[in-house]
């Protein structure tokens, strides 16, 4: 409910229905807080010259203030718009050379499937034996991707939906925080500011196609349609001779909103629950990264891919988040996005068949 002070201030101006609603007012306040906290975090990380400043800074800043109790959060529809712009940026990197390289992808997709199996079995074992999860919660928390589907199916299998959701959210947060740091420690990555993506703008009119593409993606039941549909549209435009380039401000804003939304999702959750599950989610993330590293070494040995590309391909993160990391690291984002899209599609198609074996 709005406070008397707010009511007194707003009443003389005959506010619109949006502002009459305490719910909508709360949403606006949380969005405003997420943005200014994210901007501050991004500026601090940029000043400290920390890698991926405009994603990690807003993420960590919003995570801290959400645990402190400051109302933060971004509505899924707003986040979806920026996921769409990220898809546009990624698709703009497609070229005829990319299509020629795609002929070699079946082998890397097969190795990715092996890596996913290793991650699922390793993480499920950790959650079951170390964290003490029930059978369904352990298995559906271990699946690297398709978070919403895993929460729903896991609940139907008798698992704890809240525990599954929090395990996935914490794993994604740890992956996004740890993986870029590991890359910058052990590999020389190109300077983000020297990336043409962050300097030029081209064919911005294509942004008008985000919403029609999103709608079409929903009708076609694409996974994460707000991201994949604009991605496919941008790929088609790039191959037709109209590559999209968002420029420095759009890219930074996209990173800031998506990073901030990851950190803000913990607002309102009990700190004790986050800390208890957080230590196990960190342990499970380390297990997943060990399994991913093993599969990445196989990919390097058998296919000759650079290890950074192989590891980022195997890393169990969200498709949008891993694509952002690829952009910042100078790794082919189309290759990374295509493999993570395959992973999510495969999981969504295959997991329901194993439902009877994963129930409590």
Q: Which descriptors would you attach to this protein?
A:
360 residues; mainly alpha; Na+/H+ antiporter like fold; two-stranded antiparallel ribbon; 2 strands; 1% strand; disordered N terminus; AbrB_dup
Question: Strands, helices and their partners?
Answer:
Elements lengths: L3 H7 L6 H4 L1 H26 L5 H16 L7 H16 L4 H6 L3 H26 L4 H8 L4 H10 L4 H26 L14 E2 L7 H10 L5 H15 L5 E2 H18 L6 H33 L3 H8 L4 H11 L3 H18 L4 H4 L2
Antiparallel strand pairs: 1-2
Helix pairs in contact: 3-4, 3-13, 4-13, 5-12, 5-13, 5-16, 7-8, 7-14, 8-9, 8-10, 9-10, 10-14, 10-16, 11-12, 14-15, 15-17, 16-17
Plain-language structure description:
This protein has 360 residues and is mostly helical. The protein has one domain (4-358): Na+/H+ antiporter like fold (Up-down Bundle), CATH 1.20.1530. 73% of the residues lie in helices and 1% in strands. It has 18 helices and two strands. The protein has helices spanning 4-10, 17-20, 22-47, 53-68, 76-91, 96-101, 105-130, 135-142, 147-156, 161-186, 210-219, 225-239, 247-264, 271-303, 307-314, 319-329, 333-350, 355-358, and strands spanning 201-202, 245-246. The model is unreliable at 1-21 (pLDDT under 50).
